[in-house]
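RECORD TYPE: inverse folding
INPUT: structure tokens
STRUCTURE:
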């Protein structure tokens, strides 16, 4: 008998109360410089997972570009922009000044003929879809978490999935930034073209991006199908499915032998949905199964496989921007590597074996996506069609033992780490992985010779 995804959750929970993990609110949403007895009060900043934090002397949220120019020009010490705090690497922490661009948000302009739009960099991805739809446009692709700001996404080459679709930075046709001396600089393929190639993925090290011109496409609707299948079946079909669908990804459930797959196709069908799974509840149920049966991989596999093998397909037809994103409230720390398409699935198979043969302590699904190559200097997809593999560790548990075992596998197969995800690479490693590394450093030094935008982590990499 077939069962719904919700029944999968209740079956595995076996009547126990569902565990929950309330997300910490993002402190980057508001202006947080306060006063105490007439003196500035320092307020701690933490990222979404709580793994990165700092106590900056100033936390500012300028209300317009002119105010941003002034604060950058007058700032002493390091200035770092902060978005939604969804990066896990120490890109933000500084003892000096943190700047939120959350008040520089929204659609600035659009060009109907070219199907392009100019959007303020502080805009969250979740807040772009509706305004674009109102002018007949939509992002070509987007990630499965839409809480990030546009500026943060571009700084770290954030991506969705699609064998013929690049990361978000690949759709940028121009951008504006405030440089270290407070000046406004516009760059595109004709004006400051080398700065443009560096700025599309810059780790926030060239200046503070304020506006982004994006190549879009006319508004479209997607049919999203999600289904469960044995891992061997998904692996056998993965490349075919990636080529046949506009978007395709799969998640392997550790110790289950089963995958959950997602595909998107363009459609003109009416909007509708079958019963939808609460993915946060499902993840916490996987944690419960790990807690109960982690001592016995065989029993764990039997319980998971028995519950998953009859789950019915889920279908959702919606506007593209509503169908891409998933709500992620269960916090985690993440490592993600982008591997050459030729070796990505081989690496996945070895990662799966390393986890299960050594009974490593993990319950989060392993995420596998496909991304098209580009020509952006610091993009992990530079001249490389890629398979992206992401592993997650519950935020309350030490991620280092798991990542220490799996990262060497990613590196062995030629992977480049996601700029916002945990890794142990150093400057010499990145210099080997990126053919235009020195070109980027040359542009960076010219724009910011005194390192105003470099915190300790970035100084170790590009300082």
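DESIGNED SEQUENCE:
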């Amino acid at each position: 008998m077939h069962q719904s995804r919700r029944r999968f959750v209740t079956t595995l929970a076996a009547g126990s109360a569902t565990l929950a993990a309330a997300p910490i609110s993002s402190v980057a949403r508001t202006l947080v410089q306060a006063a105490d007895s007439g003196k500035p009060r320092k307020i701690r900043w933490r990222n979404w997972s709580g793994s990165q934090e700092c106590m900056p002397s100033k936390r500012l949220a300028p209300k317009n570009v002119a105010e941003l120019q002034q604060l950058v020009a007058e700032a002493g010490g390091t200035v770092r922009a902060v978005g939604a705090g969804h990066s896990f690497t120490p890109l933000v922490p500084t003892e000096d000044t943190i700047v939120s661009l959350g008040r520089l948000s929204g659609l600035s302009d659009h060009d109907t003929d070219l199907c392009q739009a100019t959007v303020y960099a502080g805009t969250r991805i979740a807040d772009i879809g509706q305004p674009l739809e109102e002018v007949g446009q939509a992002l070509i692709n987007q990630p499965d978490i839409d809480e990030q700001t546009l500026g943060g996404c571009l700084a770290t080459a954030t991506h969705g999935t699609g064998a013929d679709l690049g990361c978000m930075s690949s759709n940028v046709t121009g951008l504006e930034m405030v440089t270290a001396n407070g000046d406004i600089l516009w760059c595109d393929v004709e004006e400051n073209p080398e700065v443009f190639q560096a700025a599309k993925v810059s780790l926030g090290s060239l200046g503070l991006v304020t506006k982004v011109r994006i190549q879009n496409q006319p508004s479209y609707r997607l049919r999203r199908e999600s289904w469960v299948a044995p891992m061997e079946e998904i692996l056998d079909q993965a490349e075919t499915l990636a080529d046949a669908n506009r978007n395709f990804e799969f998640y392997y459930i550790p110790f289950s032998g089963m995958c959950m797959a997602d595909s998107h196709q363009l459609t003109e069908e009416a909007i509708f949905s079958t019963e939808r799974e609460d993915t946060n509840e499902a993840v916490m149920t996987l944690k419960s199964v790990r807690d109960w049966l982690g001592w016995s991989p065989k029993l764990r596999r039997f319980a998971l496989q028995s519950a998953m093998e009859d789950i019915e397909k889920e279908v959702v037809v919606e506007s593209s921007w509503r169908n891409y994103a998933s709500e992620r409230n269960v916090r985690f720390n993440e490592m993600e590597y982008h591997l050459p398409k030729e070796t990505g699935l081989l690496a996945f198979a070895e990662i799966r074996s390393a986890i299960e043969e050594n009974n490593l302590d993990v319950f989060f699904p392993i995420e596998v996506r496909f991304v098209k190559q580009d020509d952006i200097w610091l993009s992990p997809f530079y001249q490389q069609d890629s398979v992206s593999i992401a592993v997650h560790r519950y935020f309350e548990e030490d991620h280092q033992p798991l990542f220490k075992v799996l990262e060497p596998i990613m590196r062995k197969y030629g992977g480049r780490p996601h700029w916002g995800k945990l890794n142990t690479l150093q400057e010499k490693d990145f210099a080997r992985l990126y053919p235009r590394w020195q070109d980027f450093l040359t542009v960076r030094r010219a724009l910011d010779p005194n390192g105003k935008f470099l915190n300790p982590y970035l100084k170790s990499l590009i300082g």
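NOTES: The chain has three domains: 27-100, 107-218, 221-418.
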